[in-house]
Amino acid sequence: MSVTATAVHPYPKTLHPIHATLLAGTVPLFLGALLSDLAYRSSYEVQWANFASWLIAGGLVFAGLALLAALAGLFRSRGGERRPIYFLLLLAIWILGFVNALVHARDAWAAMPTGLVLSAIVAALSIVATGVGLSRRVGAPA
Amino acid sequence: MKPAGALVALACSTLVLSACGRNDPDPAQYGPDPALPEMETRLLPSMTIAEPVPWGDREPTVPQNYTITAIATDLKIPRQTLVLPNGDIIVAEGRGGNAPALQPKDVIAGYIKAKGTTSVESGDRLTLLRDKDGDGVYEEQTVYAEDLNAPYGLAFFEGKLYVANQDSLVRFDYEDGQTQASGPPAKVADLPSAINHHWTKAMTISPDGRFLYVGIGSNSNITERGMVAEVDRAMVWQVDAETGAHKPYATGLRNPTALTIQPETGQLWAVVNERDEIGPNLVPDYLTSVREGGFYGWPYSYWGSNVDPRVKPEDPEKVASAIVPDYILGSHVAALGLAFSIPAMGEQFAEGVFVGEHGSWNRKEPVGYKVVFVPFRDGRPAGDPIDFVTGFRDDDGKTRGRPVGVTVDPRGALIVADDLSNTIWRVAPVQ
Question: Which pTM was predicted?
Answer without folding.
Answer: 0.90
